[in-house]
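Appendix B, example 12.
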Amino acid sequence: MKPAVAAPASPQPGARELLLETASQIMREGDQVDISLSELSLRSGLNSALVKYYFGNKAGMLNALLDRDMVAIIRSVDALLAKDDMTPEAKLRRHIGKCIDTYFAYPYLNRLLMRQVRDSDEAEARRIADQYLTPLRVAYDRLIAAGVATGSFRRVDPQLFHFTLTGAADRFFSARLVLRHCYGEDTLTEALRDRYREHTVDFVMAGILATSA
């Protein structure tokens, strides 16, 4: 049995949340899905030993960060499915827009998700899949089936739709080098996010609607 990690003397209030937010900032700014504990300590002003205290190790901290960031997507999908006053088309448009906004805020999210599933032990990988991947699969099954039933959607493969939407959201916000070297832009601005949101919603919906204008 591993010895328990002693609590630090007078731990700073909010230290756990500060570690997670600092890790998130490092990954956003560096367009990466890994961090060094020395940089984390320098940027947060906290002793890196707190990572072991709060999370067990760096992998545990990255899982906690994934939990923090993915929960917003799952909650929004659950709330959307529960709405009875929206058409399937309106629901899907809102969801696509929410995906773009979430990946703008956390551009590392899908890469972190894939890394943690790949590198975790079987039990943790299954937890992540059950908690975050399966709910999205079920949501797309339901949303697309509802649209087909009302005649507003053509029949598309929900699995492939999942890959298409995730890829569209993830690729753009993890492509700063392409922006810099091909388009002379080095910053993912809110204006660029808004343009991409509108483009992606229109582009994806054009492929799923039963009739196109």
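The two ends are 65 Å apart (CA to CA). The first helix runs from residue 15 to 30.
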